[in-house]
Amino acid sequence: MRKLTPVLFLVVLSLFLAVPGSIVAKTLPSPTASPSPTPVATIAPTPVPAIDFTQKTEENLGPLEKLLHDQKVGAIWPGNPIKYAIRGAVNSGVPANTIVLLLLLPIVAFVIAFARNVVGIRGFGIFLPAALSVVLVATGPVVGIGLFLVIVTVSTLVRFILRKLKVKLQYLPRMAFILWAVVLGVLGVLFLAPVLRYSSLSNVSIFAVLILILLAEDFTRVQLGKSIRTAFSLTAETLILSLVSYLFLTLKPLQDYVLLNPEISLLSVGVLDILLAKYSGLRLMEFYRFRKLINNS
After folding, report:
1. What torsion, rounded to 10 degrees, do the Cα atoms 260, 262, 264, 270 define?
2. How far is it, in rounded angstroms, from Cα 130 to Cα 115?
3. CB 112 within 8 A of CB 248
4. How far apart (Å, rounded) are the C-alpha atoms in residues 247 and 265?
5. What is the pTM of this model?
6. Does residue 169 register a pLDDT over 80?
7. What's the CA gap between 210 and 191, in Å, rounded?
């Protein structure tokens, strides 16, 4: 039995060495290796294509420019010369909203003339209400009317103080002094913009203020020539005409129509002006003023 022990040991050893390594691997416990950090895949950002502002893409076009771009225009003659001229001006850098305002000004002038000849609203002429309506578009009706009331109030107070103090000044020096006081009043309002926290008030253009001062000059001239009551009446009527004109200037369908059909718009307004000049009847306000006389007759 002792002689068989070395032989059995050699047999077991030979069998063990003859076992495949995969089986040994299954029987032996595998060492626990520390998990290696999983590499995180970094995604490269997709490059955003730069917008070419020289191309007429949808991102570059404004509402009015896009409206022009989408319109199909026929031959230049005989019915589309102004359409092609507008496109050439816009392509060269002229703002489309400036062209729209210029195309709307004849309509505004016709509305003011119609209000004078047919309705009976007077106001300070025709150009000043039209200019004031453009100011209301630029500044907004609240800021525009507010500044106008400040200017009129300051000019009236200065004229009243000069008259009470019996300070006699010639016309132009008096107007220069009133302008000096008006500038101080407007500066005071602008200095209050941070306190009032009204953004539209801090973005007022100098041209809007100049037009408002021009209206105040007419107001003062009427005060000097007639009376304060007449001046206030004409000023109120001018504000009414300006607000009505402001509605026409900001009417989006009308803006689109005059931009897309400038020939029809200009020709129609010219014909309406000539027809309006032929009207010689009573105004609507005169019908109301003389209603008793008309009813008795």
Report:
1. 150
2. 13
3. no
4. 17
5. 0.71
6. yes
7. 18
Residues 6+ apart with CB under 8 A from 124: 215, 218, 219, 222, 234, 235, 238
Q: Which residues have a Cβ under 8 Å from the Cβ of 81 and sit 6 or more positions away?
A: 263
Q: Using the predicted structure, report yes or no on whether residue 224 has a pLDDT greater than 80.
A: no
Q: What is the mean pLDDT of the chain?
A: 78
How many Å apart are CA 212 and CA 209, to the nearest integer? 5
Tell me how far apart the alpha carbons of residues 245 and 111 are, in angstroms, rounded to a whole number. 7
- Helical ranges in the chain per DSSP H: 4-18, 21-27, 63-70, 81-91, 96-114, 127-139, 141-164, 171-191, 193-196, 199-202, 206-225, 228-249, 252-260, 262-277, 284-289, 291-296
Q: Write the CA distances from 95 to 62, 88, 109, 120, 205, integer angstroms.
A: 10, 11, 22, 36, 18
- DSSP code at position 28: S
DSSP string, 96-152: HHHHHHHHHHHHHHHHHHHIIIII----STTHHHHHHHHHHHHH-HHHHHHHHHHHH
Nearest in space to 158 (alpha carbons), one of 185, 126, 186, 121: 185
Contact between 87 and 68 (Cβ < 8 Å): yes
- CA geometry: angle 194, 197, 202, nearest 5 deg: 65
What distance in Å separates the CA atoms of residue 244 and residue 92, rounded to the nearest whole number? 33
Most confident range, picked from 28-42, 77-91, 225-239: 77-91
Angle at 270 between CA 88 and CA 69, to 5 degrees: 25
Output the CA torsion 102→106→108→113 (10° steps).
Answer: 150
